[in-house]
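As noted in the main text, all predictions were made from sequence alone. Below is one such record, for DUF4386 domain-containing protein.
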Amino acid sequence: MTSTAPPGTTTSPAPAAPRDAAVVAGTATLAMAAAGIGANSIVLGITGSGVPGTAGRVADGQALLGLAITAFLAVAVLDIVLAWAVWRFFGSAHRELPALAAWLRVSYAAVLATAVGHLATALDIATGPAPDDAAAHAALAQFGVTWQLGLVVFAAHLGVLGVLVLRDRATPSLIGGVLVVAGFAYAADGVARLFVPDDAVLLTVLTGVLVASSVLGEVALGIWFLVRGGRSR
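Prediction:
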């Protein structure tokens, strides 16, 4: 039997049940944090401080670099999963911002996947028949530049996500504020690295701010998603 609404009334879709999206978002956030930190540490260890010996370092660390590539690709996939979860969790109450946050996260995932391609190129050069220090180092440097530009897109995502959290009555506003700070720090750091020497004090300060605010903001939001997200909406 089909039910009908009383005359003169309109039906609205059933409210979303965001608990499942919160669990997915929290799990993806914490998994990405672990995988990203580990992968970045491996790449930094292999890159070294100069061109000479780059191919040898990459070849010697072949297994580790392969693990880092896999971890970065996993992060890119989880970025897309998180974009969906954020859109689903906030979408019923906030129409435009969740979609914008999701698309920015997907865009960052695409840039990250492109950057990882340069790591694969460096590995191919170093383990090929004619290893070349300069070419391997250039590929690693291209990874860094591409990823750094991607972090500007990521900064925009964090800023939008922070505003979204601040506007959402069920989500702690403190986390939203920290995410907005992290977004500004990532954007400033990404732009500054294009023009400021790597050993500049400004970069040291910006890096400290972005690491602290990003870790605190994202990890705190991930934990909140897992523990409280969707329970009181």
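Helices lie at 19-47, 54-60, 62-91, 96-126, 133-167, 173-192, 201-227. Residues 19-227 form one domain. These features were considered when defining construct boundaries for the mutagenesis experiments described in Section 2.9.
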